[in-house]
Amino acid sequence: MSVRQISMMIKPASASCNLRCRYCFYADISENRMTATNGIMSDATADLITARINEVLQGEGIASISFQGGEPTLAGLDYFRHFTETMKQYPGIRTVYSLQTNGTLIDEEWADFFHENHFLIGISIDGYQANMDRCRFDADGKSVYYRVLNTAELLKKKNVEFNILTVVTKKLAAHTKALMKFYTDHHFQYVQLIPCLPPLAVADDSEALSPKEYAQFFNTFFDEWIRKMEKGKLMSVNLFDNLFEMVHGRIPYQCGMLGRCTVQFVIESNGDTYPCDFWCLDEYLMGNLHDMSFEQLLQGDAAKTFMATDSCTKNPCQECPYLRMCNGGCRRQNVCYLNDDFCAYRMVLDHVLPYISRLG
User: pLDDT tens digits, residue range 239-261?
Assistant: First the structure.
């Protein structure tokens, strides 16, 4: 018998954030819709979400809930306490929590809460200090580097599971070995590497990766990763982990790698729900949870139109040996590696798959 499951991303602070990162894709999204931010989520909307989850699962199953932003911790610790306590009213539902944060507002009380409620935390750190200070800073333009590193140490101390998320910009892509040294020096074993995207209305900008930069960075990083592995220094890297799953006949956990979009249920703080974090725009709004159930949102025209869009439309895809594997990849992220003349992702796959396919 299959287990009922539902996954979603909740934005309890909408697009609000206490940092001013150079490349923030959600700030770009919020600036391209009628209402930029919806403020902090009310307890009433949080309670509605938990009730809607129970409505789908009928009291038994798995709910995977990711909190993101903006900066989700701006909603306050009491919000999260209320949410998790409300979910405990449904003892037949196993809730799996994760939270992506800039790491600047977390203290011991937060860390104890994360540990007690088994949260997986993603901390955004863009590598060594010179790069971090260039890209990620507070509203006054001041460095947050050591504040974030201290948070990572606090989570280690409190036995909270966490990984590091790094946005790979043009400048960082040119310093791959320095980035790997940073991870090694700080003993970070779980890493997510995300290519920096250009703004929605801009084809190219000073921070976003170009296809050639994408291929150079990931191939060089893979070589450094292999050298670490051969010395017995294990490191989980999201792209390589997902490719391992795929070449061994399993479905990747990262959305978009198969080039087929599915509805992710991204819930803004007022209950507005979108199909994907990259497309929280007015034209993709599926509806509001105050008015519609998850099932009704999924069956609506906006969701069907979103899922029907084919990402594989570029010339390099037409005769690519990896077409069945990636189908063009994520249609938002592929702007970094795919154009009508060249596919950097194919270069990466040519380079890494022979080795990954031999890993046991």
Answer: 999 999 999 999 999 988 988 88
